[in-house]
Amino acid sequence: MSSSVVMEEKRIAQRSFDQLYELFATDVLRVSYYYLGNREQAEDVTQDVFVRLLVNKPELEYGKEKAWLFKVALNRCRDLWRSAWIRKTILGHPGFESFPAPDELKRVTDDMDLASSINRLKPEFKEVILLFYYQGFSVSEISGILDIAEGTVSSRLSRAREKLQKDCKGDDTL
């Protein structure tokens, strides 16, 4: 196969900006929100990720676009998290638009408690929890997204689970 044919196949296989936005914007927003705990900042990160995609026009391998988008989003979230402004801001959960039914209250409260516990984790633990449980990436895929060894991903997942379990029991050693 000639190189021009291979390049043409790659071009055809690449998804357009609009397709990528339609497919992955909600996921990028969700993981950014879980990381930061703030809707407006998560929206800013999501916008920044897609602006970078549009401006930089990286050659993304078909099927691996979501990993690139998450990598950029998590890097931007880390930058925000480390900034002095975010350390001074108390991160909380926004109020619900509608109050849950009584039978849903326990589930909603448990979900909020878990989200709060995850939000209190150190960034390296929070990242792997969000990618593994909330986005369904495998240990191998997370390794590629975060540029760390698979063993490190597994170790962080294990340690994060332990910390979450302690936090759920009321132990404040996150």
What is the strand and helix layout of this fold?
Layout: H1 3-13, H2 17-36, H3 39-56, H4 65-82, H5 84-88, H6 102-120, H7 123-134, H8 139-146, H9 150-168
In short:
This protein is mainly α. The chain is built from nine helices and no strands. The longest helix is centred in the N-terminal third of the chain and has 20 residues, at 17-36.
Describe the structure.
This protein is mainly alpha-helical. The protein folds into 2 domains: 1-92, Rna Polymerase Sigma Factor, Chain: A, CATH 1.10.1740; 94-174, Arc Repressor Mutant, subunit A, CATH 1.10.10.10. It is built from 9 helices and no strands. The chain has helices at 3-13, 17-36, 39-56, 65-82, 84-88, 102-120, 123-134, 139-146, 150-168. α3 (39-56) crosses α4 (65-82) and α8 (139-146) packs across α9. The radius of gyration is 18 Å and the shape is globular. The chain starts with a helix and ends in a 6-residue tail after the last helix. The model is unreliable at 86-103 (pLDDT under 50).
User: Briefly, what CATH class of the largest domain?
Assistant: Mainly Alpha
Structural class: mainly alpha
* C-alpha termini separation: 55 Å
Largest sheet: none
Please give the share of residues in helix.
over 70%
CATH topology of the largest domain: Rna Polymerase Sigma Factor, Chain: A
Tell me the number of structural domains. 2
Low-confidence stretches: 86-103
What is the count of helical runs?
Answer: 9
